[in-house]
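tool=predict chain=A
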Amino acid sequence: MPIRWEEAPDLHARVVEFVVVLGFRHVRPDRVVCVRAYGARANAWARIWGLPRIFQDALSIGPAYVIEFLEPGFGRLPPDEQDRVILHELLHIPKTFSGGLRPERSRRFAIDRRTVERYYRRYLRLTGRGGGATGMRAREEGLLPRG
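tool=predict ok
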């Protein structure tokens, strides 16, 4: 069965929420596309693709990223695990937003379960979804919709 992709605006909205709430100012959501992939055989729930510099120059376009969510695996995850997967993929975008990708491990930064969990806990605190009232701040500042 060939791979089939479809845009995933619902997942893009979740990406935007993480970018805004966590203050990932280096990420340009308008240059990040989210797609669902059906028929892929990868042993992953999601993967991120950057647009290499040579293609940017050849096509006269700027840096861009595609986050590919592999179905049915990703869709079967509980929402909190989906959030962690989204965060994991966002952490691969370097501060330069160059079209390149951060590796899983470097001298200064590791994209592992511990790092993802730290960002996820911060996200829960800021949105008030972690059981505390501090998430009101994000809503009051207009970062999140009310309700």
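Residues 141-147 have pLDDT under 50 and may be disordered. The beta strands are 4-7, 32-38, 46-50, 65-71.
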